[in-house]
Amino acid sequence: MGNPFHACASCVHFRAKKGKDGMQYKCSRLGYETKPNYVFDCWNPKEHVRKLMEKRMGGSDKE
Hints:
This protein is an alpha+beta fold. It is 16% helix and 19% strand.
């Protein structure tokens, strides 16, 4: 099983724009139209996602 956080919607490059035909999703880095649940190898998680990943993986050692 892969990283459950890894998806376009949690990436810093993900852009969502409401148009007259509904929502449009795009990767600003790649320039591709995408969907929130798509997965690309260039994924760079947003800061709040990174913190959540650390919290759930027990990575915040404060000793």
